[in-house]
């Protein structure tokens, strides 16, 4: 589903990704682990198309399509979802208005009909109940007044509502207490499926206790330096990143 | 008739004087007078060029909610002089949306003449292209107007760096037991918020509209008439969507 080949990317004058190659298949849950400054968040932002990140070399195919040629909103419509490490607060734009606008914009770009108000609210109630989000809260400004855990739950809520093909989750576990981690993990597990894929970006093994990955990649110095099964994450937790060749 | 204003007059400092000359003399002031203890709500909708003088007289205990929306594509000016008697209350919301190379301005002079009157002003300007938007807000508290509570908040959103916002608060206070709060900010759209919206599938132009709409919303918040509120929301949305 996602094929990244020899990706080089810079932020300002600094090259952060230095020939990253990675593939994620449909049905797969992959984890990327790595030390601070390895390029994990840069990878997430490059894939989502954030301004200020320049790809200097390499290619990214998403479902056979040249992902890097698409605008950020077109990437979303194509089925890519970025779960933010630090979800943004947007006062004055309610969560529900935002989500409905996003859903319909995606549908429009895909040539699908808009979702009806009734169907939308039905889906909202279902997803909010699963994630323990208060409906009143969702009528307020996007993430405004939300605790760190609530913001991450809101990301999981949007993931469940939008049901993309590919979820790229950047440090979704940071700032979560044990209960919130469990709820968000359930959200991700519910999302798993044979036609979808997940790429979890994380520092710690903790999230992987709840969302068991099929593959673990180690990112260091802007490249994937090792790939293995779930046991690799356990080994990293025990031995740290220092033992791995950069 | 009064003489044509010049740049030296503080209240006309940022005006488009060429346009003013063409519009001179302006029509006589419109009077909004609210009797003692009564309440009123008024909307002033300016979608064409012109100079609008408004005189507000609030008798003791009178309440007025006034909303000014300026979306004119040529020079438009609204100047409001309000006189507040004891215990009167003025709630003023202003939305100025400017594009092209036009100048639009709101000039307020709120005079607390007697004790215990309250006034709140919320003014939001959204400026695109080479537009200029001005807000000059004066609050004057007379010597006897103790326990005045006056608040003024003006914020401008500059969509392009070629646009100009001039915000000028002015407080003149002669009483000693008063509350006067004021704040002015000029800013651009939040890049992080724009990216967040886009990453969820909202196209850039629509994302900008959504954020700008949220920005002006609190100037319209005081409107109790829901139908009117929705109409104004739709109008600002229409303006924001048209400009792209």
What does it look like?
The complex is a heterodimer of chains A (246) and B (244). With 246 residues, chain A is of the alpha/beta class. Chain A has helices at residues 40-48, 72-78, 95-109, 117-131, 135-138, 148-162, 178-191, 206-210, 230-239, and strands at 2-11, 14-24, 29-33, 53-62, 65-66, 80-83, 90-94, 141-142, 166-170, 197-202, 215-220, 223-228. Chain A has a single domain (2-239), classed as P-loop containing nucleotide triphosphate hydrolases (Rossmann fold). Chain A is 38% helix and 29% strand. The radius of gyration of chain A is 18 Å and the shape is globular. Chain B is of the alpha/beta class and 244 residues long. The interface between A and B is medium-sized, with 33 and 23 residues.
Order of helices and strands of chain A: EEEHEEHEEHHHEHEHEHEEH
Helix content of chain B: 10-25%
Q: How many strands in all of chain B?
A: 12
CATH H-level superfamily title of chain A: P-loop containing nucleotide triphosphate hydrolases
| Quaternary class | heterodimer
Number of helices of chain B: 4
CATH architecture of chain A: 3-Layer(aba) Sandwich
